[in-house]
Write a structure and sequence with these properties.
The chain is of the alpha+beta class. The chain is about 40% helix and about 15% strand. The protein is built from five helices and four strands, in the order ααβββαβαα. A hairpin with a 2-residue loop joins β2 and β3 (about 50-55). About 30% of the residues are buried.
Length: about 140
Amino acid sequence: MCIELGYVNYRKRNKKQKTNNPFDIATKRNIIIRYFPLGNTLGFYMKNARQQVITINNSINDELMKYVCAHELGHAILHPNENTPFLHKHTLFSRDKIEVQANYFATHLLLYGENLQNYETTYELLRSKGIPFEMERFI
């Protein structure tokens, strides 16, 4: 699957970072993270004058904020020259190719290094990592 190859290539190139924290990775990649009240929009990624920017809704909880940052980081890494549509609460189910790829990236980034057998249920695993349950299909 193309998504998996993109993620695997990312992990190979970035093993030296030794983190799966999307905020740390974005900072190390000189990606600006901004926080604004965005209503029903969770966040979005854009590139303006060669500067990559992730914008996150400042009214969502910290766990969801981490997932949104990972999702938008996926866009920054997998689709660096595309300004992406807004990630709305209802688009977690999106079938749009770049949204599916960013969801896959975010889910695998946040689960990287985790022993899945330490969890009794998928729900417990996702909840412990702040990943929306809708992302179960990417495990």
